[in-house]
Write a structure and sequence with these properties.
- The protein is mainly beta.
- It has a single domain, classed as 2,3-Dihydroxybiphenyl 1,2-Dioxygenase, domain 1 (Roll), CATH 3.10.180.10.
- Helix content is 13%, strand content 40%.
- The strands form two sheets. Strands 3-6-5-4 form a four-stranded mixed β-sheet, with helices on one face. Strands 1-2 form a two-stranded antiparallel ribbon.
- The longest helix is centred in the middle third of the chain and has 10 residues.
Length: 77
């Protein structure tokens, strides 16, 4: 499965091979970093959809998107 993620307003186009929803993005990234896995860019906040996202790559090159709700976010219709 490929999920095509486009954030033209910040100039990023990236296709993720897998998407994982997490309750707390900062906690998930801290746990991964403790195991030697770091995101390949700083997390992005996508206000219009009320999400924060980060991307990691596994040891065989699979791009994995981690996503979590922005606390107290209001989604636009």
């Amino acid at each position: 499965m490929t999920i095509d993620v486009r954030h033209d307003h910040v100039g990023i186009t990236l296709a993720a091979d897998m998407l994982l929803a997490v309750a707390d993005l900062n906690d998930a990234l801290a746990r991964l970093q403790a195991r030697g896995v770091a995101p390949f860019a700083e997390p992005l906040q996508i206000g219009p959809i009320g999400r924060r996202i980060a991307f990691i790559v596994d040891d065989v090159g699979t791009i994995i998107e981690l996503t979590a709700a922005i606390r107290n976010a209001t989604r636009r219709p």
